[in-house]
Every structure is written in structure tokens, then in C-alpha cells.
Amino acid sequence: MSASPPSTWYVDFFTELPNEFWRRAVPPEVTVDEIDFVERRLGLAPGSLILDVPCGSGRHSVELARRGHRVTGVDLSAEAIGHARRAAAGLEVELVRADMRDIPRDSGFDAVVCLGNSFGYLELDGLREFAAALGGAVRPGGGLVVDFASAAESILPGYRAEPRTMRTGDITVLATGEYDVAGSRLLSHYRFTRGEEKLDVTAIHHVYTVAQIVDLLSGNGFTDVELFGGPDGGPYEVGSGRLLLTARRTS
């Protein structure tokens, strides 16, 4: 196995080049489908107060605000927050640069969304902190949506580490992966290329079972957990490419 990146890899990973690649790579209709799912499954009332964490470059925050919701987005990447502020001009969106665990815990939000596979960025102790923060952020009866593509039930069946090349416009990405068995984590190595510019970075996604995730959330006041395999509302199964989990905060 290659040398391990630091556990806080996400602090320096999300600079302009990786962020710009993913901004281009996700079609607008994907964001629309995801927010349709959030509104449908949580039954959001018009003008709901929603926390988007981490919000990245703001695609979900902006779409929620366009639909009339009041949104707070939190992300650690200065570049992403800057882009989100430009994209959200004229909309009711507050954007804050902070760690995903440093969110208000005053039970003030009608819903929290954690989309884009960021739930697995943290080691177990950090994830416990995040789950506690989520429980503190949502009002009694409020909702939660977690998007997680690194659940053990998704990653491990038939896992093969094969190189991939991805392109969008003038950005090319070579991606290779390896599974750290002792650490139960997926290491994704990326080489981003744009003209003469090259960037080599590694992301870590900690792999947790669905039972671990449900246990963490239920221990912080979330019940009525439901598991879906995508925004179309199909069931989550072994081998599903992603997990979309919804829950309610108990009173």
C-alpha cells in the first residue's frame, strides 16, 4: 500500500482545480433530482430553514434557495465557499466557512442535508462528533438526509481497484484506488491535469456499515430511518452504488 495521507486530508484537498472538475462533472438535472428527493421524503414546507453541510460549491444550497427555502451552507474550503457565494447572489443563502462539525446546535433547523458523499471523510471519533452536531442542529420533528457512497455494503461486494480516466472540458483526471483493510477505508489517488497544470492528491473515505451509521444517528436522537438506493426512491441493497438515508429528529 502507498504512503498514507493525513487523516485531515480534506483540509487541503478542495482547491480550485478539483472543485472546478466536480462542478463541471455533475449535470444540473442531477442536483434537481436530489433536491426533489429531499423535499419529497422530508415533506418540506415552503420557506423551511435548511442546513447544507458540507455544502461544497453550493449546488444544493442554491437549488434549495431557488425553491424558496432559507439556507445556511457550511464548508471548510475557502475556494468552494467563494464560488457558492457568487452562485447564490440574490438568494436567501448564508454561507459560512467552517469545519462540518462546527455547526449551530440550537435545534434551529427544519432539516439538515449532508449530500455528496462527505459523510465518510471523518474517522470514527470525528464522525461521532458530527452525528452529535447533526442531532443538535435539527429541531424536534425535523428531518435529515445523508448521502453516502462508501457504505461497506456498497463498496465491498466485488471490489476491484481499476484505474479510471475522466475528462470534462480541458480537465483530465486519472483516478486509482486501493482498499486499506486494516483501516477499513478507501484511498482514492487523483492526478488532475489542465494544460501545464498538474495536481496529485489523495482522498480518504472511511467505510462504515449501514448498521454503524444508523446506530450513530439513533444515538443522537434520530428515528424513522429509511434507506434508499438513489433519488428515485428505490430500495438500498447490497451492491447499490450509493446510500440515501432519511431520518427524523425525535422530540
How many structurally independent domains? 2
Helix content: 25-40%
Computed CA radius of gyration, to the nearest angstrom: 17 Å
Number of strands: 11
Mean pLDDT: 96
CATH uppermost class of the largest domain: Alpha Beta
Q: How much of the polypeptide forms β-strand, as a percent range? A: 25-35%
CATH topology descriptor of the largest domain: Rossmann fold
Quaternary structure: single chain
How are the strands of the biggest sheet laid out side by side? 3-2-1-4-5-11-10
By CATH, the superfamily of the largest domain comes out as: Vaccinia Virus protein VP39
Taking pLDDT < 50 over at least 5 consecutive residues as the criterion, the unreliable ranges are none
- Series of H and E elements: HHHEHEHEEHEHEEEEHEE
Per CATH, the architecture of the largest domain is: 3-Layer(aba) Sandwich
Structural class: alpha/beta
